[in-house]
Amino acid sequence: MARGARGRVGRLAGLGAGALALVTLLGGCDVGSAFGFGWPGGVTPQANRMYDLWIGSVIAALAVGVLVWGLIFWCVVRYRKRSDQLPVQTRYNMPMEFLYTIAPILVVCVLFYYTAVVQTDVDRKSGNPDVTVEVVAFKWGWQFNYRDGIGEDANTVASTLGSADVIPVLVLPTGQRIRFEETSKDVIHSFWVPELLFKRDVFPGNVRNVFEVASIDQEGAYVGRCAELCGTYHSMMNFELRAVSPAEYEQFLQAKRDGATTQEALQSIGESPLATTTVPFETRRDVSNFNQSSTGG
Q1: Could you tell me the CATH number of the domain that includes residue 142?
Q2: Residues 274, 294: Cα–Cα separation, whole Å
């Protein structure tokens, strides 16, 4: 086979292998995941800002990468060895050295600026949130106290306590600013709802870790985890965040004030009384077998 023919066959084989790899890669994700570059979608304004920062950072990294790869391949082709003659030796190139010194500094400064802006906005706390929830972690479960104000001096008006049989459901309204005040009864835990894109450690003692979300934009059920290794049953320390309309939230809270269990209060607003999004762990999710007189906050 002639050298030219072998070259064409090699190029076709390379293109075929690349196309196969691309199809295999893209076949494993939907359009949103592909263009999200691995960053999950969120349901809060803070989550959307973090998503935008991530996308911008990845695009900037890809642009720099394409430029560097292009220069490398251009040098490989343009300055490949053509003879045994030694090429002209250049001791320094001031424009090039200036470029690869200043350009990384500018990139880092821009990324630092936008990271600081987004982080400051994400961590911002208001003095008058619409809803305040005290998150109490313990081995190996959760208690959620609905408070009438902020700080340790506020009063608990309703509470949800998880048990060995019933995974706790934290009910919150959409469209309202929510404050989380976290504390632990024993060791360090971590409050994590992937759709909020927040993971905040929960410390024992007098330390209260506080954060807020501007609003939850979508109604639904969202899985919650403990994201800090805390002991034997850490993997089973789950909860569910149930986002409902403000009217349904007030109805739920009033039912709790009137003495209803969390499961009964959830049923009163037409919601499933048990957690439904704790996959992949086995949970008690068969509503037909649910006994309203069972334990559960």
Answers
A1: 2.60.40.420
A2: 12
pTM across the whole model:
0.73
CA 160 to chain CA centroid, nearest Å? 24
Distances (CA, A) of 1 to 8, 11, 15, 17, 81: 11, 15, 20, 22, 26
Instruction: Please report the pLDDT score of residue 15 as a whole number.
Output: 58
180 and 271 in contact (C-beta within 8 Å)? Answer: no
The two structure tokens encoding residue 205: 């003692």
How far apart, in whole angstroms, are the C-alpha atoms of residue 199 and residue 135?
13
pLDDT tens column, 163-190: 877 889 999 999 999 999 999 998 999 9
Q: Which residue has the tokens 């706790």?
A: 168
DSSP H stretches of helix in 28-93: 31-36, 45-78
- pLDDT computed for residue 8 by the predictor: 55
Residue 251 has pLDDT above 90, yes or no: yes
Prior bond to 246 cis, omega within 30? no
The token duo for 200 is 């905040």
Domain around 175: 131-283
Q: What is the DSSP letter of 10?
A: H
From CA 42, how far away is CA 101, in angstroms rounded?
37
Q: What percent of the chain has pLDDT over 70?
A: 80
Give the integer Cα–Cα distance in Å for 140 and 144: 14
Contact 160/253 with Cβ under 8 angstroms? no
Q: Output the six-digit token pair for 173.
A: 């309204």
In a domain, residue 87? The reply is no
Please check whether residues 149 and 57 belong to one and the same domain.
Answer: no
203 vs 290: CA distance, rounded Å: 34
